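Quick question: what would this complex look like in 3D?
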Amino acid sequence: MHKPNATSADVARLAGVSQSTVSRSFDPSSRISEKTRQKVFAAADELGYQVNKAAQTMIRKRSDLVGLVTAGLGDPFRSEFLHSLVLEVQNNGLRPMVIDVSDKHTIDIQLQSLVQYQLSGVIITSGTPNEAVAKAFIKRGTPVILVNRADYSSEADIVNLDNTQAGVLAAEALIKAGKSRLQVVRSRVSSYSSATRAKGFLDALSPYVERGVLSVDEAFCDSGNYDGGTQYATDMLASAHYPDGIFFCMDCIACGFLDELKQDRRLATPTDIAVIGCDDISIAGYKSYNLTTVRQSSQKMAEAAVSALQTRLKQPNTAPTQHNVSVELVYRGTLLK
Amino acid sequence: MHKPNATSADVARLAGVSQSTVSRSFDPSSRISEKTRQKVFAAADELGYQVNKAAQTMIRKRSDLVGLVTAGLGDPFRSEFLHSLVLEVQNNGLRPMVIDVSDKHTIDIQLQSLVQYQLSGVIITSGTPNEAVAKAFIKRGTPVILVNRADYSSEADIVNLDNTQAGVLAAEALIKAGKSRLQVVRSRVSSYSSATRAKGFLDALSPYVERGVLSVDEAFCDSGNYDGGTQYATDMLASAHYPDGIFFCMDCIACGFLDELKQDRRLATPTDIAVIGCDDISIAGYKSYNLTTVRQSSQKMAEAAVSALQTRLKQPNTAPTQHNVSVELVYRGTLLK
DNA sequence: TTGTAGGCGTTATCAT
DNA sequence: ATGATAACGCCTACAA
């Protein structure tokens, strides 16, 4: 008899035990005679009993819900990363509640819901909610994990991609390829990630610049997506001097750039101009782009973020941690090894 | 004084009213003197009070949480659609809980969580959980919306893209362009959507075939993604007879096909061979592909799905509805208007 | 090992 | 219009 919404009391009645015994039976750490437990499980099974998380949450004061805060999913890397996060959260016995804060008008309402639902933790993957928000959660006792953000002073745990290293790898590869007129390109409204990548790139090159071996400059496109890349290519092609090596802080910008370049037909990669992207989104590997890029593993980042959360749930009062996820260069057609 | 976790009782004490008055103050449909309400709001504000959804859920027996069931997010259209759903759910005062059921080993655990959390509704966008699962939810009193699935007999509300019409539009466009050796290509393990698109395409052409005006055949690739497309192109190019017009049931397959074609250089689009995709994922518009395709608006689908859910929440006992979302042909370079 | 009882924070019912 | 009180389903001392 599959009763629509059986409670633990129903199970207790059917199994001939007390309600608390039923409750205990589902707690692995509770010592209960194997016989009783089986009896309870059988009854629960028969009734289709499932624990009521709302009631459980009231007592435990944690819901096992994890808020995944993001600003949009249009950017392919964001969506790949969110997918990794969802899977990782699920694999840890937690449930993902997704919060998109790209709409500034409703952002407060979205954030309120995070506290209303007694979330066990919050993983913020977007720059949008400022650090004050993170601190407010922490003050309420909700662990916060910050992913790829600038806040170093925070009381929250931090997981960062090694953005600096990404820039360094790109710089080294271009030097090794013998390129000497270099550029680094990112969106005018840059994220922390992009800015740090650019800085890593520039810093790695500065000794060479000082020795007069090569030149580098920083350039910007209007938006951090495909269209930004095409627009940048148009501008560059209209200018007097071309670089012979460019590091784009996001793959999607690089893809737009490559498409415009191909259409223009004057410059060929990697001979006239070498191109390196960053992220290794899936289309970077498509034949049309075949983009040499710095890969960041969204899976590794997700694992680090959820693992940091789990640690903090177990030990709430330890000092905040910081974790840098390593990156690697993937050679493809726009800069040969 | 921003108390960490203020309850309505705390607010009541500070405002000098009863706890039930506080509760009522936050219910717009409750008639309360404006003066008291302001007093309560002020106190709530001071304490940083937020309603405890767990307690609310216990008594209301609904959590305002909506389960979004999907199988993976790798496919670009899936992820664009999920994004639309998240936004739409949020805009309706509900919260999205994402459930990825792509891992068959844990699918039961994931589905259990749906009932544990007392979800207000479930939107299933994947073929994976069979119809029995949907019926189980409905029996428990949880509304289920099925999106782009085959189940017509279900007791659930259904939102479908007009997949048949998508096939028809593609067929008509190819005929108008004067193509006569046609093909429709989809993954060997096809979704309901793809199968219906192919059928719409074939049915629309059958009168022409009978009159001997043209030929059509059905072809399959090994996987429903970019790689499936390249593989299909390779096979086709190795065969004796080429079609002069192909309808791919998914954009990403078409993109793989186009890339391989470009590399081979023997056949040019749209002259030698016209190509039409389906979905209008964002890369379809990229210059490298410039793919003529049948657009399905993920936003429209999301709106229809959430609206169906809202309707059912208000009127649980009405007959299940079915909604078809219209599609349109977007002309680009692989088949000119 | 098991049962009893109290309480988590809210909404809803019934008085006043 | 407002206040008291009884649930909602579960966990967790405490007792046995």
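Answer marked as accepted. The radius of gyration of chain B is 26 Å.
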